[in-house]
Amino acid sequence: MRPISYSRATDTATAIAAVTADPTSDFLAGGTTEIDLLRQNVLHPRRLVDINGLPLTGIEVTPEGGLRIGSLARMSQVAAAPTVRERYPVIAQALELGASAQLRHMASMGGNLLQRVRCSYYRDAESACNKREPGSGCSAIEGFNRGHAILGTSEHCIATHPSDVAVALMALDARVLTQGPSGERGYEFDDFFLLPGDSPHREHPMEHGELITAIEVPPAPVARHSLYLKVRDRESYEFALVSVAAAVSVVDGTIADVRVALGGVATKPWRARRVEDFLIGAGVTRENFAQAARVELIEARPTAMNGFKAELARRAIVRALETLTADRSGSPA
Ligand SMILES: Cc1cc2nc3c(=O)[nH]c(=O)nc-3n(C[C@H](O)[C@H](O)[C@H](O)COP(=O)(O)OP(=O)(O)OC[C@H]3O[C@@H](n4cnc5c(N)ncnc54)[C@H](O)[C@@H]3O)c2cc1C
Ligand code: SF4
Q1: Ligand located closest to 129 CA
Q2: Domain housing 303
Q3: Is residue 79, in this structure, part of any structural domain at all?
């Protein structure tokens, strides 16, 4: 048995100082990732600093008309917020399609971004895994890899990023705001999630003791017409095989603004910029959607078991875009 000390922080500076001072310590929010992995002998903190007493639960409209979500706001709280549902439906849908009702009540937004991969080898302390133990090898590359990534992989790790809401936030150009030993920082969402490369154990650029305080979403009129499509093996309580966060604005039958991000297929929440570049200024047709999806998946690198994901992703992109545009310009040709 390993002893773990536990303390409850009442202000942000104390929480940051406590974790910074001890390299074996972790922040504890809802605990739905941290405690799971501690029990599975994957994480080994000697000290947990409970941050649930910090005043970081607000969901506010910013002066510019965007959204600021406190890192300790619960998934269910954000999904239910009227301003989120009305202005950013893709965020509410991504949250509601994740985990279970009980988990969504416990799980915080900051913890959601930092949840760990669902690769079974990562969660089995006996298996070789470069992410858990750098340099030990990757059991998934030649192992059971049906759920693994086809985009953004490396020869060192092919695990899929598991968060749903991070996919929606990626499509909306969100920023992660932090406070830490070196002061306050802001990260563009795309820079916050690191590709595995040759150091898959490094998943984000934060230093030890850096605390996510909020997630900021810029104003995005296009987001009022957005959706999250999640394809999975069963209809609830399951991670995505493929997911699509999409928002589209159509003017006179032409696409004026479009945002697309993919989940379940990549090692980080994947902004589908090729889809967006192809579609801006294009007509609302199924042919254009299908061609855009093909272009995005050109660099897919499937494993022995997950070749189906490329086709599934192409179809899911088309379906999401068709669903979003069908009601405004008649059925796409
Ligand atoms: C059975 C199951 C099914 C699930 N299904 C889904 C799903 O379908 N879709 C989905 O998106 N997610 C899913 N999840 C993941 C779940 O959403 C995450 O576990 C949860 O969001 C983590 O939040 P938490 O507050 O519990 O974080 P914790 O477990 O408390 O923390 C997670 C990590 O983040 C760190 N941390 C937490 N808050 C901060 C902060 N503010 N600043 C810096 N570090 C911090 C902790 O130290 C820890 O390392 C599932 C989880 C389970 C157990
Ligand atoms: S895919 Fe990544 S997380 Fe899974 S075993 Fe390989 S290195 Fe570990």
Answers
A1: 2
A2: 224-327
A3: no
Specify the ligand 1 atom closest to the Cα of 75.
Answer: 21
Mean pLDDT, all residues of the chain: 96
Dihedral (Cα; 226, 230, 231, 234), 10-degree rounding: -140
* Nearest atom (ligand 2) to Cα of 138: 6
Per the CB < 8 A criterion, the answer to whether 90 and 263 are in contact is no
Does residue 299 sit within a domain? Answer: yes
Q: How far is the CA of 315 from the centre of ligand 2 (A)?
A: 27
The number of folded domains in the chain is 2
- pLDDT digits 0-9 by tens, 189-207: 999 999 999 999 999 999 9
Atom of ligand 1 nearest to the CA of 99: 5
Residue 269 domain-assigned (yes or no): yes
Q: Which residues line ligand 2 (CB under 6 A)?
A: 117, 119, 121-122, 129-131, 138-140, 157-159, 200
* Residue 161 in domain: no
Distance, in Å, from the CA atom of 82 to the CA atom of 280, rounded to the nearest integer, reads 30
**Number of CB atoms found within 10 A of residue 270's CB:** 28
The mean per-residue pLDDT over the stretch 95-118 comes to 98
Q: What is the pLDDT of residues 148-174, one digit of tens each?
A: 999 999 999 999 999 999 999 999 999
Which CATH number does the domain housing residue 240 bear? 3.30.390.50
